[in-house]
Amino acid sequence: MDYDSLTVEAKSVLLTFYKLYCQRIKNGESRLDAREFQDFYLIRQKYFADWTNINDLLDAVNELSRQKWLNNEYSNNVPTIIALNTESIAFMQTRFSRGLKQVIDELSKIKSLIF
Q1: Residue 28: which residues within 8 A CB-CB, separation 6 or more?
Q2: What is the pLDDT of residue 115?
Q3: What domain of life does the UniProt record list for this protein's source (predicted)?
Q4: Residue ranges covered by each domain of the chain
Q5: Nearest-angstrom CA–CA distance, 82 and 80
Q6: Are 114 and 9 in contact (CB under 8 A)?
Q7: What 3-state class would DSSP assign to 14?
Q8: What global pTM score does this model have?
Q9: Is 3-114 a CATH 1.10.10.10 domain?
């Protein structure tokens, strides 16, 4: 897992999932529940509506899976369950040790490069 080798699109997706994970933990969800997300089409609708090209989002999610940032289960080549793995969470906790505001700031910077 090499964060610097990720595309900006994949970093944007990873940061979004990590931000959601942190918010869920803050709201009292268990770590296990907080790191699991619905299938690809639901997460696109709920969290990535600003991505106009669905294939770009799918490519970024697949990139994160190939590089072991996410554990995905697939059906018909589309993720049906997307989950942050614990190594990803540990990395993000270390990299963004100042907390959620630091994650949101980084996400804003990266999104400005995409959209």
Answers
A1: none
A2: 64
A3: Bacteria
A4: 3-114
A5: 7
A6: yes
A7: helix
A8: 0.88
A9: yes
